[in-house]
Amino acid sequence: MKNLPMTRRILHLLLVGLFLFLPCLAFAGEPEPMTTNPAPPSSPPKLGGKEGGRGAMEFKAGEIIVKFREGVSQTSVRSLLLAEKIDILRETDKLGITLLSVPEGQELKKIEELKRNPRVEYAEPNYIVQVANPIATEPHYSPLPMAVWPDDPYFSSQWNLAKIEAPAAWDITTGGDKVVIAVIGTGVSLDHPELQDKIWTNRGETPDNDIDDDGNGFVDDVHGWDFVNWHGEPQDDYGHGTFVAGVAAAETNNGILIAGVSWGAEIMPAKVLDQGGGGSIDDVNGGILYAADNGAKIINLGFTLTGSAYSNAVQNVVNYAHSKGALVVAAAGDSPDDSYQYPAVLDHVISVAATDRYDERWSDSTHNDKVDVAAPGAHVLSFVPGEYYPLSWSSTGLAAANVSGLAALIWSVNPHLTNDQVEDIIESTAVDLGEDGWDEYFGWGRIDASAAVRATPHYLQIEPDSLNFLVCDDSNSPLGAITNPGTNSSTWTAAATASWLSISPPEGYTPSSAMVSIDMGSLSDYGVYTTTIIATSTLTSCVNCPLTIPVTASYFRKSYLPLLFKQP
Questions:
Q1: Cα 172 to Cα 457: distance, rounded to the nearest angstrom
Q2: Partners of 110 in beta bridges
Q3: Is the Cα torsion angle 336, 339, 344, 345 positive or negative in sign?
């Protein structure tokens, strides 16, 4: 990697904090001291200025974003751009959004000219975006009592998990690996031991062959995409995306660092911000579209538009992601006022405010009439690239990470819910704080993971959907297994309908399994035996149970074995 180690950035932040009398850096346990030098600041994108009358809304120099009206032909578009002496940099065909190159210093003039053209739906600057909140490490606090104890050494200090009743939710599900959380921001550490086995894999892509195997427009995008450097290794060189991913879905019960809200969810990285935490709307839109088109169920947005700018283009892309079934989650903002922070206030985005360990509003959490829900965001533990001890940080971005992990748990209980249904469960089961009902500080309240998963109708899943056994007369009793990929062993039972079939009680977290075996002493003669297994849910509400699983056992003499597998 060309970028300097992450430890340098952390030390730099620490030194600045000391001079400004910020809280000192403290760790649980005794981490190794950081001895590297601070990294120099990265070069910010060249700015085109600030749009007058709307605050400090910076945009990229020489670039604007335009959407042409539906039905306008490509010939007409090319003719218009040629007349305006404007070049195309990038086109998003499915949404009709186009990134254009214009002379530096003429961005606003060209925008106004295009707005007056009837063929143009809207034109706007390519606004600069920034990471939602720079990481500023803090002391973290003493343990809180919890019921379920994974073996992660710092789990007892994760007050946020105790507060949202995550251990009680884990009695139902620890989260299936078929739910994907896209982290749109600074990238994710692909080789951190808490994340390396959690990174989403594009199974349609063959690594390192320089071919777009799945035809999605990205070459070798095996683990996501880097929209800043335009390649298939979206490594985090800032730290924000890794921190957020850890809160939502760190590897859990592995004896390392911390627990994630969802033990099983996969993380899809989309790097849209550079090593200084900056980027542009065009890259952000690419990341959201990539996540939506490649199967992400939850899209966590880890950035804000500078100067609280509204972008038609970002709203269009969010609408598209919602139409594809994704739940889009964003931080309400880290300014202690009632300002509108984008993208959190956009339609089809869950805006998440932050609370502390006492269920009070975190002092810097933005409040407004767009806040949907609240979650723990003050002094939350996670980690950054290259470091193997936990850091504590406060941000509404971490509150959004808790919500993202909870959404993954809900979809594990019932993968057939819509994004709107998942949002409704999160909000309707939240613990009401502040004024009765909805209010601008907490939305519908602080999330409750246990109440949410218990309010979710259980869609029972059992794999495989049938079992076939070959039983030889002098062999041991054959074994098989049925697996529930979405919920824990306590949520289901399975029973045989024939005396020659035995089923053990389900065991394990998510996935959970039950062993199936043949009692050969109960088979009276050679032949084919058929029966069924009946699996049912133990939860109050179930929408796909009981399930009937056909079982076939073919019982034969050992001497017949060569005939069974003889090639024709």
A1: 12
A2: none
A3: positive
Tokens, residue 187 = 């990238």
- Same domain membership, residue 366 and residue 244: yes
The pTM (predicted TM-score) of the whole model is 0.86
Q: What percent of the chain has pLDDT over 70?
A: 84
In tens, the pLDDT along 241-256 reads 999 999 999 999 999 9
CA 12/CA 25 separation, integer angstroms? 12
Question: What CATH number is associated with residue 98?
Answer: 3.30.70.80
In this structure, the answer to whether residues 348 and 428 fall within a common structural domain is yes
The number of distinct structural domains making up the chain is: 3
Residue type at position 328: V
Give the H or E element holding residue 107: helix 107-115
Domain finish residue from 405, 428, 455: 455
Cα separation, 361 vs 63, in Å, equals: 39
Q: Measured between alpha carbons, how far is 521 from 523 in angstroms, rounded to an integer?
A: 6
User: Per-residue pLDDT tens for 202-247?
Assistant: 999 999 999 999 999 999 999 999 999 999 999 999 999 999 999 9
Question: Do 496 and 374 have their domain in common?
Answer: no
What is the structure's pLDDT at 134? 62
Q: Say if residue 172 is in the same domain as residue 222.
A: yes
Together in a domain, 202 and 344: yes
For 355-380, give the secondary structure using H, E and C.
ECCCCCECCCCCCCCCCCEEEECCCE
Sign, Cα dihedral of 191, 195, 196, 198: negative
* Residues 507 and 432 occupy one common structural domain: no
Q: Which of these, 188, 275, 243, lies nearest to 393 by C-alpha position?
A: 243
- Alpha-carbon distance 568 to 551, whole Å? 27
**How far is 308 from 108, CA to CA, in rounded Å?**
18
Q: What is the mean pLDDT of the chain?
A: 87
Whether residue 509 is found in the same domain as residue 553: yes
| The predicted structure's pLDDT at residue 307 | 63
Tell me: pLDDT of 442 over 70: yes
- DSSP states of 52-68 as a string? TTSSS-EEEEEEEEEEE
Separation between Cα atoms, residue 286 and residue 314, nearest integer Å: 10
Closest CA to 233 of 193, 191, 263: 191
Give the span between the Cα atoms of 441 and 341, in whole angstroms.
14
Instruction: Examine residue 464 and say whether the peptide bond preceding it is cis (omega within 30 degrees of 0).
Output: yes
Residue 286, domain extent: 132-455
Question: Other CB atoms closer than 10 Å to residue 32's CB: what's the count?
Answer: 10
Q: Do 182 and 284 fall into the same domain?
A: yes
